[in-house]
Design a protein that fits this description.
- With 346 residues, the chain is an alpha+beta fold.
- Helices cover 29% and strands 36% of the residues.
- It has a 7-stranded antiparallel beta sheet. Strands 1, 2, 3, 4, 5 and 6 form a 6-stranded antiparallel beta sheet that branches. The chain has a two-stranded antiparallel sheet with strand order 7-8.
- A hairpin with a 2-residue loop joins β3 and β4.
- α1 runs antiparallel to α2 and α5 packs across α6.
């Protein structure tokens, strides 16, 4: 028999002034279908994709079928959404006098799929060369922009429908009230998310991403090895697998992708200077969709050791400490221990 005051907490009734959903144990659900329908239409209608080639615009969301809901079970929030979307778009080049019309379909917007896996099928009614080029613009750049907008829908859904779902207990009224008033750090970050499509100095390049409050991490580490050996530790699959102690996927070339630590860290190689420099786009799986930090590793061999100068720009403020400690524990310390790079340089 359990002692007084001990036992499974699910069976210990907490006092609540309103006597509702004690311990948040019972299933509660909110229907988010109507809100989602209007949200998705608002995000997509009027969305423009512009490059040197021409300009395209989604003119109307003609069909949106599906449902969305938010649920609370055992103090855990569960979001469900499944949508099939069809929209009309137009495109033009030059003076814009000739308009080309087309249709796009999004068949699999669902919580089962990552944003990057959402399909965007594009068709155009005309068959000439310009129509084909505009279709390709919508299929490539346009698809990325649309995925970003749908990522914002998902973030807004979770923010809008998480409020009031988990009720406070008698021991936490002050904390609950504070969170409602000021919002948690994560909520503040989500509120600052701003989708953007901005053209760079080279107007032929279109950048798509999210804007959030970020910080920089800087560090300097000394390794008892040659510069070539340290460079290999970051670029050879077998060595990365050794110090991360898990499966690794890597394409070590400019534009090549990588995935480590069970897919929790992914990114792309931006620049590679053998034995001297590595630049990556780098993200945690838990970060806002499409947000990447930029990691720069400068390697310099000296008479005594090899110095690694580290800079990571664009780290979400809410994840700054975890990211900084992660580099120290899972990279620097692990590399030194795995390859004995903390011992005397030979």
């Amino acid at each position: 028999m359990a002692k007084w005051g001990e036992g499974d907490p699910r069976w210990i009734v907490e006092e609540r002034a309103d006597a509702k959903n004690v311990n948040n144990w019972h299933w509660t659900e909110k229907n988010a279908t109507a809100w989602s329908t209007e949200k998705i239409k608002g995000l997509l209608t009027g969305l423009k994709i512009k490059e040197d080639l021409g300009e395209c615009e989604i003119t109307e969301v003609t069909k949106i079928e599906g449902e969305a809901s938010a649920s609370n079970r055992k103090a855990k929030l569960i979001f469900f959404y499944e949508w099939e979307i069809t929209a009309d778009w137009t495109g033009s080049v030059g003076d814009g006098k000739t308009k080309y019309k087309g249709t796009l379909t999004i068949p699999n917007l669902s919580e089962e799929n990552d944003i990057k896996d959402i399909d965007v099928s594009v068709s155009v009614k005309s068959t000439d060369e310009i129509a084909y080029k505009l279709k390709e613009l919508m299929r490539t750049t346009g698809a990325s922009v649309i995925q970003e907008c749908l990522g914002q829908y998902i973030r807004d859904l979770k923010e809008e429908y998480s409020q009031g779902m988990i009720l406070s207990t008698k021991d936490s009224p002050t904390t609950a009230k504070k969170n409602v008033k000021t919002g948690s750090t994560d909520t503040k970050i989500m509120n600052m998310v701003d989708l953007r499509v901005s053209q760079q100095t080279d107007s032929s390049t279109t950048t798509v991403g999210v804007k959030i409050a970020t910080k920089k991490i800087t560090d300097e580490q000394h390794f008892k090895c040659r510069a070539a050996e340290l460079y290999r530790a970051f670029t050879e699959k077998e060595m990365v697998q050794a110090f991360t102690r898990g499966p690794v996927e890597m394409e070590v070339e400019k534009g090549g992708t990588f995935s480590i630590l069970g897919g929790n860290v992914t990114g792309k190689f931006v620049d590679l200077v053998p034995h001297e420099k590595i630049v990556q786009l780098w993200r945690f799986k838990s970060w806002p969709d499409a947000h990447y930090s930029t990691v720069t590793l400068n390697i310099k061999e000296t008479e005594e050791d090899t110095v690694l100068t580290f800079l990571q720009a664009g780290v979400p403020e809410s994840d700054y400490e975890r990211t900084r400690e992660g580099w120290r524990t899972y990279y620097w310390q692990s590399i030194k221990q795995t390859f004995a790079f903390g011992s005397t340089l030979l």
